[in-house]
Design goal:
Two copies of one chain form a homodimer.
Chain A lengths: L2 E6 L7 H14 L3 E7 L1 H10 L8 E5 L10 H7 L4 H11 L4 E4 L3 H12 L9 E8 L2 E6 L9 H18 L6 E5 L10 H11 L4 E6 L1 H6 L4 E3 L2 H26 L3 H20 L8 E4 L4 E4 L6 H16 L2 H18 L1
Parallel strand pairs in A: 1-2, 1-4, 2-3, 4-11, 6-9, 7-8, 7-9
Antiparallel strand pairs in A: 5-6, 5-10, 10-11
């Protein structure tokens, strides 16, 4: 299936130096995928040139004069930078020239601009950020990762529906299990929002597993994990911090003296296999779910390898018809509510 | 300094098989520490006997006829089991026979019973659970870990004061830094409660660092981390789950074939040093802070080695005069409010 993807080439810590080579690499693997490279044309063309690639139908350049800063207030970007690479890339999704947008830029600005330009899907009050994490059984999807700090039970239900439809369409898993992140598995645990959300989820027709706890994330207890954006963001960042600390400790222990360094040399293939298995770059690319368009947020620090996974997510969501799946489910649940 | 510690010998997954040997081991290290071993006397005496130790002034046995189940509703335990090992151990703190209580039992029941029997310190609305986590710089203290799912900004301020006084007294660090767990470092980030708490903390006279994010926990950015019990519990359990997954992966990679097993053999001393550094047993023992007495909660699955650290925390809090430190600080901040 032919897909056009708009790349916000200036976003992220590395800008065009990462985004353009990632698009080039992907264009070679997937001839049915066309890229619209949005940003300062000199920067983009320089990257194409250094890769020995010419712009053309598969790698089109769209000049945009402004760049959204990584720490810029979202409102600034939205109101003041109408010709930013981020805004123009999202506009291309709105106009239908592209079916998806991928950006490693400022998360807040990307969410605010996407919401303003694309609007939310019918029945969705607020978009959420959904990400993938490795588990003992494979991987899981968790949302929201930080777009919504205050959520009602209805918001959590909408997140559950969106997350389930994402997995159902992209992974072709008809009834993915959904867990509600809580501080205990019993019904009486948690705050009122979580308790009310559990009631809604039990009556939703989704494959609701029930309450889960933080350690269930990495046990892979459910296919989808629902939580408010404050909790999800803390869980994600805490995991990043712990993984970094453990990696540092492991490096320090193997680097302690000549003997440990020799042991490290012997163990190198094993350590490499281990690192590859938990390589966070393979989980790069969070979905801004609930919008009338596919928008993928790459980690700001992603390299070419990692940014490629964000592109892959965008393509998977477009080709699996994820938006239609969500819309159909929302329409069905609305009808249910109206006739109830 | 002489201290008497009441041990809830029946609490935890292993009951007297862990709690009694841990008390015996500690009694040998610390002759000024006396233990009151509370629970089913047959079970306790059997453990003393199998260790070849006689009950006496340093290891006194106090019979209690009931046991609180690990999954029993807290209200049940509180109302229905007035002669449980947990309740009697807490009663001993109330009566002054013991200066601290250590339990590996049901967290909810321990909190409810402690609060009912001991009451909160003047100026403290709700007790909080404070735990220790390893960091790149050493360790940090985080609270609340799950006692309070809904918190106001004032509660978070009280947690901050208690956490800071815990570190100030136990670690002899006069002005420990305090971080507020949030989803971004800028002032505009987070929900209203967190924003209001930041304002209160800035005016509190504490050494307030500002907002921190999840990854700052393990970076060791601050000495104390404050959050509501929902967020703290998710952060803790998520960490446990991630650590278990990584340990499983590492074991699997080293166990893959003869060559990797040989590499594992060579790397064993390094892996052991690494594991020892992050051994969660060394961080066992969470403080129920804000009560008129020292109560320490051990992890339910703790072994003898781990339970010893919970005992050590209890002794540190008693000997450093932590309760007086918290009371003095609360009185000072009340006066400030009244004269403002």
């Amino acid at each position: 299936m032919e897909v056009a993807v708009a790349i916000d080439c200036m976003g992220g810590d590395h800008g065009a130096r990462v985004t353009v080579p990632a698009a080039i690499a992907w264009s070679r693997r997937d001839p049915a995928c066309r890229f619209i490279l949005v940003g300062l044309q000199d920067a983009i063309n320089a990257e194409l040139k250094s890769a020995g690639v010419a712009a053309g139908p598969q790698l089109a350049v769209r000049h945009a004069t402004e760049v959204v800063g990584m720490d810029e207030p979202p409102a600034n970007a939205l109101r003041g930078k109408k010709d930013s690479s981020m805004r123009v890339a999202i506009d291309l999704v709105k106009s239908g020239e592209a079916q998806a947008c991928v950006s490693a830029g400022n998360t807040g600005a990307l969410m605010a601009t996407s919401r303003f330009v694309l609007k939310t899907l019918p029945g969705i009050d607020r978009p959420a950020i959904a990400g993938m994490l490795p588990t003992l059984k494979g991987h899981t999807h968790i949302l929201d990762l930080g777009a919504n700090v205050d959520c009602t039970a209805e918001h959590l239900l909408q997140f559950a529906i969106m997350g389930a439809e994402l997995v159902a369409s992209v992974e072709n898993k008809p009834r993915p299990s959904v867990g509600l992140l809580n501080i205990g598995t019993e019904d009486i645990k948690g705050n009122d929002v979580v308790k009310d959300a559990a009631t809604l989820l039990r009556g939703s027709g989704l494959n609701f597993f029930g309450n889960i706890e933080g350690d269930d994330i990495y046990k892979g207890t459910t296919d989808v994990i629902v939580c408010d954006g404050f909790v999800g963001n803390v869980a994600l960042k805490t995991s990043e911090g712990l993984a970094q600390m453990l990696a540092t400790y492991l490096r320090e222990e193997f680097g302690r003296n000549v003997l440990t360094r020799l042991a490290g040399l012997v163990a190198l293939p094993v350590i490499r296999a281990f690192k590859n298995r938990v390589d966070h770059r393979r989980y790069n690319g969070a979905s801004l779910l609930g919008l009338r368009g596919v928008v993928i947020k790459s980690h700001g620090s992603a390299d070419v390898y990692g940014f490629g996974f964000a592109i892959e997510h965008a393509l998977d969501e477009v080709r699996s018809g994820m938006l239609e799946h969500i819309m159909r489910r929302m329409a069905a649940s609305q009808t249910k509510v109206e006739t109830a």
